[in-house]
Amino acid sequence: MSKKVFTTAEGIPVPDNQNSRTSGPRGPILLDDFHLVEKLAHFNREVIPERRVHAKGAAAHGKFVVTQDITRYSCAKIFSEIGKETPMFARFSQVAGERGSADTVRDPRGFALKFYTEDGNWDLVGNNTPVFFIRDPLKFPDFIRTQKRDPQSNLKDPNFQWDFWSLSPEALHQVMILFSDRGIPASYRCMHGYGSHTFSLINKDNVRTWVKWHFRTEQGVKNLDPKKAGELAGSNPDYLTEDLFNAIKEGHFPRWKAYIQVMSIEQAKNHKDNPFDVTKVWSQKEFPLHEVGYFELDRNPGNYFAEVEQAAFSPGNVVPGIGVSPDKMLQGRIFAYADAARYRVGTNHQLLPINAAKSPVNNYQRDGYMRFDDNGGGMTNYEPNSDPNAPKQTNTPENYFPDYTSGEGGRYDNRVDQDYYSYPRALFHLMKPEQKSLLINNFVESLQMVRKDIQKRVLEHFQKIDPELEQKVATGLK
C-alpha cells in the first residue's frame, strides 16, 4: 500500500508541515510561505459565524491610567504623562469551547485588551498564561483541532490532546500550567493576564526595546477546585460571565496593574534562549517587572452582541511608539486575527462602534459589505494623487526590525534547541507540596482516559521533567 503524500488544496506536495519559512532561524515569517497562508486562511473560515477559538467570552469597558514614566522606552502618546487616562475595552474568554460551553472547564483564558488611543487603536491580545503550546503558527490549526471534536463521533477526545502534546514537547511548559491550580480560574477578575509574546517599544529617538507585558490582578488570584468546577459546569455554566457582570453592576470595579519586562536589542542577541520563543518565559530576576500603570473596568456592555460578539482584536494593531517582534506565533496571529475578523464580522468590521477608533480615520478603503458610513464621499479614491485635501503618508520611521531580516529564506526547524524540559522543571520545583499533588491528580484524571501508548510517551516526557512527577503519575495510572 503506497503512502499518502500530504498536499496543498491544489494537490501540490508539502515538503515540510512543521516549520514556517522565515528570514533566518530567528527572523520573521516570510509572506511567500503559501502553505502557511493557505492553512491559516482556510482555518479562519471553517466555522460560521462564531469565533473558531475564544468563542465564548465576557467583556467590559474601562480606562487605562499611567502611573510611571516609561517615555525613555516609548514615544506612544498613551504613555506620554503620568496620570493620563485612555478609554479601553477588555474581553476574557475560553480558548477551545464553543459559544455555549461552560465557563469552568480546564482551559487557558483569553485576555484581550483594546486601547482607544489618540493615534488609533492599540490591541494587546494575550492569555492568562505567560507562554503558549507551540512556537510556529503553521501548527496552530493542528493544535486547535485537538481541542475540538472528533470528526466522526462529534465528541471531545483526550487522546487527541495528549497525542499532539506528547509529539510536540515544546508544549510541556504550558501543559504544566494548564493542569496546575491555575488551570481553572474562579473569576475573570481574579486571574493575571499576559501579552505572552515578545513585543517592542520605540522611543522618540527610534531606539527599540523588547518587552513582555504583565497584568496583575489586584483582586488576588483565585482558582477553582476541579470538583467544584465540574459542579458549576452543570449548575451554572455561565459562572465567570455572571461574576464579572454582577461585580461591575454592583460597583466593585476590578483592577489590574500593568508591568513590562525590558530587554535591550544587545541583550536579546546574547541571550541563552531565543527571546522570541513564546513557549518560554524571561527570568524576572534577570529582567524584573517595571510598573507602567493600571486598568480598571467600570462599565458593562449595553448589548452583548453589539459590543462583545462583534468586538474584533488583532495584535497587528499597534500605534506609533509600540511595535511587534520576530516571534513566529505573533507574526502568524497578526495575519490570522485580522483575517478572522474580516471573515466573521465583515470587511468593514473596523466601522462598528465597538471597534471604531476614537481618533480620525482617513484612508482609501472603499465599498464592501456593511459599509454604513459615507464611504469616503466624493474624495479621491486612489493614491498617489494631486488632491491637496486627500490623506498623505507621514514618512515617519516604521516599527520594523531590520536586524532580524537578514537570514536566507527557508524552513528552519523550530525544535532545534531541544530544551523542552528546563522551564517545566523549574515550574514544578517552585510548586508547594499541595500544588504538586493537585497537578499530579489532574494529570492522572485526564490521562486515565488516554490510550496506553500515548500514556507511555507522556510519562517519558515527565521523567525528563522530574522523576518524582513521572513516578507519581505512573502510580496513579497503575
Task: Write up this protein.
This protein is of the alpha+beta class. It has a domain at 25-166 and 184-360: Catalase HpII,  Chain A, domain 1 (Beta Barrel), CATH 2.40.180. It is 28% helix and 17% strand. It has 13 helices and 12 strands. Strands 2, 3, 4, 5, 6, 7, 8, 9, 10 and 11 form a 10-stranded antiparallel sheet that branches. α3 crosses α12. The protein is globular. The mean pLDDT is 93. It catalyses: 2 H2O2 = O2 + 2 H2O. InterPro entries: Catalase, Catalase_3, Catalase_AS, Catalase_clade1/3, Catalase_core, Catalase_immune_responsive, Catalase_sf.
Task: Give a quick summary of the entry.
It contains 13 helices and twelve strands. With 478 residues, the protein is of the alpha+beta class.
Brief descriptors of the model:
single chain; alpha+beta; 28% helix; ten-stranded antiparallel sheet; Catalase HpII,  Chain A, domain 1; 478 residues; two-stranded antiparallel ribbon; 17% strand
Mean pLDDT, to the nearest integer, reads 93
Residues in helix, %: 25-40%
Instruction: Kindly state the number of beta strands.
Output: 12
In CATH, the homologous superfamily of the domain at 25-166 and 184-360 goes by the name Catalase core domain
CATH class (first level) name of the domain at 25-166 and 184-360: Mainly Beta
Helix/strand class: alpha+beta
* Separation of the first and last Cα atoms: 38 Å
Organism: Commensalibacter melissae
Family: Belongs to the catalase family.
Function: Decomposes hydrogen peroxide into water and oxygen; serves to protect cells from the toxic effects of hydrogen peroxide.
Keywords: Heme, Hydrogen peroxide, Iron, Metal-binding, Oxidoreductase, Peroxidase
